[in-house]
Amino acid sequence: MRVRAPGKLVLTGAYAVLEGAPAIVLAVDRHAVADTAVREPNPSAEVREALAGADAPGVDARALHDERGTKLGLGSSAAVLVASLGAIGAARGQDLSCHRERDALFHAAREAHARTQQGGSGVDVAASVYGGALRYELGVAGRAPSVRRVKLPEGTVVTSYWSGGSVRTSELRARVDALAARDRTRYEARMKALRSASLAAAQAVDDDDAARLVAAARAMSEALLALGQAADAPIVTPSMSELARHAAKDGAAFLPSGAGGGDVAVHVGEAAPTPAFLEAARSLGMTPLILSLDVGGVRIDRQDHMEH
Protein backbone atom coordinates (compact mmCIF):
# COMPACT_ATOMS: atom_id res chain seq x y z
CA MET A 1 0.00 0.00 0.00
CA ARG A 2 1.39 3.36 -1.08
CA VAL A 3 0.27 6.58 0.61
CA ARG A 4 1.41 10.15 0.04
CA ALA A 5 1.28 13.16 2.38
CA PRO A 6 2.02 16.78 1.43
CA GLY A 7 4.51 19.21 2.90
CA LYS A 8 3.57 22.68 4.14
CA LEU A 9 4.20 26.41 4.12
CA VAL A 10 3.39 28.32 7.30
CA LEU A 11 2.13 31.69 6.12
CA THR A 12 1.50 33.44 9.45
CA GLY A 13 1.42 32.48 13.13
CA ALA A 14 4.98 31.23 13.70
CA TYR A 15 5.86 31.11 17.42
CA ALA A 16 2.61 32.87 18.31
CA VAL A 17 0.70 29.66 17.56
CA LEU A 18 2.40 28.14 20.61
CA GLU A 19 0.75 30.88 22.69
CA GLY A 20 -2.73 30.17 21.33
CA ALA A 21 -2.77 32.52 18.32
CA PRO A 22 -4.12 31.24 14.99
CA ALA A 23 -1.73 30.15 12.27
CA ILE A 24 -2.47 30.08 8.56
CA VAL A 25 -0.76 27.10 6.91
CA LEU A 26 -0.82 25.84 3.32
CA ALA A 27 -0.29 22.24 2.26
CA VAL A 28 1.92 22.12 -0.85
CA ASP A 29 2.38 19.70 -3.71
CA ARG A 30 5.69 18.24 -2.55
CA HIS A 31 5.08 14.86 -0.93
CA ALA A 32 6.50 12.07 1.15
CA VAL A 33 5.38 8.70 -0.23
CA ALA A 34 5.29 5.62 2.03
CA ASP A 35 5.05 2.03 0.75
CA THR A 36 4.22 -0.91 3.01
CA ALA A 37 5.71 -3.28 0.43
CA VAL A 38 9.14 -1.91 1.36
CA ARG A 39 10.71 -2.01 4.82
CA GLU A 40 12.40 1.21 5.91
CA PRO A 41 15.86 0.32 7.29
CA ASN A 42 16.33 3.66 9.05
CA PRO A 43 13.00 5.17 10.12
CA SER A 44 12.89 8.76 11.32
CA ALA A 45 12.78 9.39 15.06
CA GLU A 46 9.14 10.44 14.78
CA VAL A 47 8.17 7.24 12.98
CA ARG A 48 10.07 5.08 15.49
CA GLU A 49 8.24 6.86 18.31
CA ALA A 50 4.83 6.36 16.70
CA LEU A 51 5.38 2.69 15.85
CA ALA A 52 7.09 1.74 19.11
CA GLY A 53 9.62 -0.51 17.40
CA ALA A 54 7.36 -2.08 14.78
CA ASP A 55 8.52 -2.27 11.17
CA ALA A 56 8.14 0.98 9.27
CA PRO A 57 7.17 1.29 5.60
CA GLY A 58 9.73 2.56 3.13
CA VAL A 59 9.47 6.30 2.46
CA ASP A 60 10.54 8.41 -0.50
CA ALA A 61 10.81 12.05 0.67
CA ARG A 62 13.14 13.33 -2.03
CA ALA A 63 10.57 15.87 -3.21
CA LEU A 64 10.97 17.63 0.15
CA HIS A 65 14.75 17.99 -0.26
CA ASP A 66 16.98 19.78 -2.72
CA GLU A 67 19.29 18.01 -5.15
CA ARG A 68 21.97 17.75 -2.44
CA GLY A 69 19.59 16.05 -0.03
CA THR A 70 19.14 19.12 2.19
CA LYS A 71 15.69 19.56 3.71
CA LEU A 72 13.80 22.41 2.09
CA GLY A 73 11.94 23.40 5.24
CA LEU A 74 8.58 22.16 3.96
CA GLY A 75 7.71 19.99 6.95
CA SER A 76 9.37 16.79 5.78
CA SER A 77 9.42 15.13 9.20
CA ALA A 78 5.66 15.59 9.57
CA ALA A 79 4.96 14.45 6.00
CA VAL A 80 7.11 11.33 6.43
CA LEU A 81 5.34 10.49 9.69
CA VAL A 82 1.84 11.06 8.31
CA ALA A 83 2.55 9.09 5.13
CA SER A 84 3.99 6.20 7.17
CA LEU A 85 1.04 6.00 9.56
CA GLY A 86 -1.38 6.51 6.69
CA ALA A 87 0.14 3.65 4.69
CA ILE A 88 -0.06 1.28 7.66
CA GLY A 89 -3.66 2.33 8.33
CA ALA A 90 -4.72 2.01 4.69
CA ALA A 91 -3.13 -1.45 4.48
CA ARG A 92 -5.38 -2.42 7.41
CA GLY A 93 -8.45 -1.17 5.57
CA GLN A 94 -8.79 2.32 6.99
CA ASP A 95 -10.44 4.89 4.72
CA LEU A 96 -8.08 7.88 4.61
CA SER A 97 -10.80 10.05 3.05
CA CYS A 98 -13.00 9.59 6.12
CA HIS A 99 -12.85 12.64 8.39
CA ARG A 100 -12.98 10.52 11.54
CA GLU A 101 -10.05 8.38 10.36
CA ARG A 102 -8.12 11.53 9.47
CA ASP A 103 -8.77 12.99 12.90
CA ALA A 104 -7.43 9.83 14.56
CA LEU A 105 -4.37 9.87 12.28
CA PHE A 106 -3.75 13.54 13.05
CA HIS A 107 -3.86 13.04 16.82
CA ALA A 108 -1.58 9.97 16.72
CA ALA A 109 0.93 11.71 14.46
CA ARG A 110 0.84 14.97 16.39
CA GLU A 111 1.50 13.24 19.71
CA ALA A 112 4.45 11.24 18.35
CA HIS A 113 5.85 14.34 16.62
CA ALA A 114 5.58 16.43 19.81
CA ARG A 115 7.18 13.75 21.99
CA THR A 116 10.12 13.45 19.62
CA GLN A 117 10.66 17.18 19.18
CA GLN A 118 9.94 18.14 22.80
CA GLY A 119 6.91 20.19 21.89
CA GLY A 120 5.77 22.06 18.84
CA SER A 121 2.32 23.09 17.68
CA GLY A 122 1.53 20.30 15.23
CA VAL A 123 0.62 22.77 12.49
CA ASP A 124 2.80 20.93 9.97
CA VAL A 125 1.17 17.61 10.89
CA ALA A 126 -2.26 19.16 10.28
CA ALA A 127 -1.24 20.33 6.81
CA SER A 128 0.05 16.85 5.92
CA VAL A 129 -3.13 15.15 7.12
CA TYR A 130 -5.88 17.50 5.94
CA GLY A 131 -4.35 19.39 3.01
CA GLY A 132 -5.52 22.73 1.64
CA ALA A 133 -5.29 26.08 3.39
CA LEU A 134 -5.96 25.78 7.11
CA ARG A 135 -6.53 27.98 10.13
CA TYR A 136 -4.90 26.16 13.02
CA GLU A 137 -5.17 26.95 16.74
CA LEU A 138 -4.00 25.01 19.75
CA GLY A 139 -6.67 23.90 22.18
CA VAL A 140 -6.90 25.22 25.74
CA ALA A 141 -7.31 23.24 28.94
CA GLY A 142 -6.44 19.96 27.27
CA ARG A 143 -8.75 20.41 24.28
CA ALA A 144 -7.72 19.22 20.86
CA PRO A 145 -6.38 21.79 18.39
CA SER A 146 -8.87 23.55 16.13
CA VAL A 147 -8.30 22.86 12.43
CA ARG A 148 -10.51 24.67 9.93
CA ARG A 149 -10.30 24.74 6.14
CA VAL A 150 -10.09 28.30 4.79
CA LYS A 151 -9.57 30.04 1.46
CA LEU A 152 -6.99 32.74 0.93
CA PRO A 153 -8.52 36.08 -0.08
CA GLU A 154 -9.20 36.62 -3.75
CA GLY A 155 -6.18 38.22 -5.39
CA THR A 156 -3.59 36.94 -2.90
CA VAL A 157 -0.39 35.79 -4.60
CA VAL A 158 2.01 33.64 -2.57
CA THR A 159 5.41 32.67 -3.95
CA SER A 160 8.15 30.83 -2.10
CA TYR A 161 11.93 30.93 -2.08
CA TRP A 162 14.63 28.52 -0.91
CA SER A 163 17.67 29.96 0.84
CA GLY A 164 19.94 26.98 0.17
CA GLY A 165 20.44 26.20 3.85
CA SER A 166 18.49 25.06 6.87
CA VAL A 167 18.40 25.41 10.64
CA ARG A 168 16.74 23.04 13.09
CA THR A 169 13.48 24.49 14.38
CA SER A 170 14.23 23.09 17.84
CA GLU A 171 17.41 25.16 18.07
CA LEU A 172 15.59 28.40 17.29
CA ARG A 173 12.77 27.52 19.66
CA ALA A 174 15.31 26.84 22.42
CA ARG A 175 16.70 30.36 22.03
CA VAL A 176 13.22 31.84 22.19
CA ASP A 177 12.48 29.75 25.29
CA ALA A 178 15.72 31.03 26.83
CA LEU A 179 14.57 34.62 26.23
CA ALA A 180 11.29 33.84 28.02
CA ALA A 181 13.23 32.45 30.98
CA ARG A 182 15.67 35.36 31.39
CA ASP A 183 13.52 38.37 30.38
CA ARG A 184 9.82 37.63 30.60
CA THR A 185 8.79 41.23 30.04
CA ARG A 186 10.73 41.52 26.79
CA TYR A 187 9.48 38.11 25.65
CA GLU A 188 5.86 39.07 26.29
CA ALA A 189 6.29 42.30 24.35
CA ARG A 190 7.63 40.41 21.34
CA MET A 191 4.88 37.79 21.58
CA LYS A 192 2.19 40.46 21.83
CA ALA A 193 3.29 41.83 18.46
CA LEU A 194 3.33 38.34 16.94
CA ARG A 195 -0.12 37.50 18.33
CA SER A 196 -1.52 40.76 16.98
CA ALA A 197 -0.16 40.07 13.49
CA SER A 198 -1.37 36.46 13.58
CA LEU A 199 -4.88 37.48 14.59
CA ALA A 200 -4.97 40.20 11.94
CA ALA A 201 -3.93 37.70 9.26
CA ALA A 202 -6.56 35.15 10.31
CA GLN A 203 -9.26 37.82 10.36
CA ALA A 204 -8.22 39.07 6.93
CA VAL A 205 -8.57 35.53 5.59
CA ASP A 206 -12.02 35.19 7.13
CA ASP A 207 -13.00 38.60 5.66
CA ASP A 208 -11.59 37.78 2.19
CA ASP A 209 -9.39 40.89 2.35
CA ALA A 210 -6.12 40.46 0.46
CA ALA A 211 -4.78 43.93 1.30
CA ARG A 212 -5.21 43.35 5.03
CA LEU A 213 -3.62 39.90 4.77
CA VAL A 214 -0.56 41.41 3.09
CA ALA A 215 -0.37 44.11 5.77
CA ALA A 216 -0.62 41.48 8.49
CA ALA A 217 2.11 39.39 6.84
CA ARG A 218 4.32 42.49 6.76
CA ALA A 219 3.66 43.06 10.46
CA MET A 220 4.47 39.40 11.07
CA SER A 221 7.80 39.80 9.30
CA GLU A 222 8.69 42.82 11.45
CA ALA A 223 7.63 41.02 14.65
CA LEU A 224 9.70 37.94 13.77
CA LEU A 225 12.74 40.15 13.15
CA ALA A 226 12.27 41.80 16.55
CA LEU A 227 11.86 38.42 18.27
CA GLY A 228 15.03 37.12 16.67
CA GLN A 229 16.99 40.17 17.75
CA ALA A 230 15.72 39.85 21.31
CA ALA A 231 16.47 36.11 21.46
CA ASP A 232 19.80 36.32 19.59
CA ALA A 233 18.34 33.86 17.09
CA PRO A 234 18.62 34.15 13.29
CA ILE A 235 14.87 33.88 12.72
CA VAL A 236 15.00 36.49 9.96
CA THR A 237 18.34 36.24 8.19
CA PRO A 238 20.05 39.36 6.77
CA SER A 239 19.10 38.30 3.24
CA MET A 240 15.47 37.85 4.23
CA SER A 241 15.47 41.20 6.01
CA GLU A 242 16.78 42.93 2.89
CA LEU A 243 14.19 41.22 0.72
CA ALA A 244 11.46 42.22 3.19
CA ARG A 245 12.45 45.86 2.57
CA HIS A 246 12.29 45.32 -1.20
CA ALA A 247 8.85 43.70 -0.89
CA ALA A 248 7.54 46.51 1.31
CA LYS A 249 8.46 49.05 -1.40
CA ASP A 250 6.22 47.08 -3.76
CA GLY A 251 3.35 46.93 -1.24
CA ALA A 252 4.03 43.25 -0.51
CA ALA A 253 5.49 41.23 2.39
CA PHE A 254 8.39 38.81 2.64
CA LEU A 255 8.87 36.62 5.69
CA PRO A 256 10.15 33.24 6.85
CA SER A 257 7.78 30.34 6.48
CA GLY A 258 7.54 29.03 10.01
CA ALA A 259 10.35 29.20 12.53
CA GLY A 260 12.81 30.88 10.15
CA GLY A 261 16.57 30.72 10.30
CA GLY A 262 16.90 30.09 6.58
CA ASP A 263 14.95 27.35 4.84
CA VAL A 264 11.94 28.67 2.96
CA ALA A 265 10.51 32.18 2.88
CA VAL A 266 7.34 33.49 1.28
CA HIS A 267 6.47 36.59 -0.72
CA VAL A 268 2.86 37.60 -0.08
CA GLY A 269 1.29 40.26 -2.26
CA GLU A 270 -1.64 41.24 -4.41
CA ALA A 271 0.54 40.72 -7.48
CA ALA A 272 3.47 38.57 -8.47
CA PRO A 273 6.93 39.73 -7.34
CA THR A 274 8.31 42.60 -9.41
CA PRO A 275 11.36 42.21 -11.66
CA ALA A 276 13.34 44.33 -9.18
CA PHE A 277 12.43 41.95 -6.35
CA LEU A 278 13.28 38.90 -8.43
CA GLU A 279 16.68 40.33 -9.28
CA ALA A 280 17.34 41.14 -5.62
CA ALA A 281 16.35 37.61 -4.61
CA ARG A 282 18.63 36.13 -7.26
CA SER A 283 21.56 38.26 -6.16
CA LEU A 284 21.06 37.12 -2.56
CA GLY A 285 20.99 33.44 -3.50
CA MET A 286 17.26 32.90 -2.93
CA THR A 287 15.92 30.35 -5.41
CA PRO A 288 12.22 30.37 -6.38
CA LEU A 289 10.34 27.18 -5.54
CA ILE A 290 7.52 26.13 -7.83
CA LEU A 291 4.78 25.10 -5.41
CA SER A 292 1.02 24.77 -5.65
CA LEU A 293 -1.66 24.22 -3.04
CA ASP A 294 -2.31 20.55 -2.29
CA VAL A 295 -5.98 20.15 -1.41
CA GLY A 296 -5.99 16.36 -1.04
CA GLY A 297 -4.00 15.83 2.15
CA VAL A 298 -2.93 12.30 3.05
CA ARG A 299 -4.21 9.81 0.48
CA ILE A 300 -3.55 6.54 -1.31
CA ASP A 301 -1.01 6.94 -4.09
CA ARG A 302 -2.08 5.44 -7.40
CA GLN A 303 1.37 4.81 -8.84
CA ASP A 304 2.48 1.20 -8.88
CA HIS A 305 6.10 1.38 -7.77
CA MET A 306 8.19 3.58 -5.53
CA GLU A 307 11.54 4.57 -6.95
CA HIS A 308 14.62 4.34 -4.73
Q: Can you tell me the number of structural domains?
A: 2
Count of alpha/pi helices: 9
- Strand proportion: 15-25%
Radius of gyration: 19 Å
Low-confidence stretches: 304-308
CATH topology of the largest domain: Ribosomal Protein S5, domain 2
Largest sheet, in brief, is:
6 strands, antiparallel
Structural class: alpha+beta
Order of helices and strands: EEHEHHHEEEHHHHEEHEE
- Our measurement of the CA-to-CA distance between the termini, rounded to an integer number of angstroms, reads 16 Å
What does the average pLDDT come to?
91
Outline of the structure:
The chain has 308 residues and is an alpha+beta fold.
Question: Would you kindly provide a written description of the structure presented here, covering whatever features stand out?
Answer:
β4 (133-137) and β5 form a beta hairpin. This protein has helices at residues 45-51, 76-91, 99-116, 123-130, 169-182, 184-206, 210-231, 238-249, 275-283; strands at residues 2-12, 23-39, 57-60, 133-137, 146-150, 157-162, 253-256, 264-269, 287-289, 299-300. It has two domains: 2-151 and 293-300, 2-Layer Sandwich (Ribosomal Protein S5, domain 2); 157-289, Alpha-Beta Plaits, CATH 3.30.70.890. The chain is globular. The protein has 308 residues and is α+β, with helices and mostly antiparallel strands. It has nine helices and ten strands. The longest helix is centred in the middle third of the chain and has 23 residues, at 184-206.
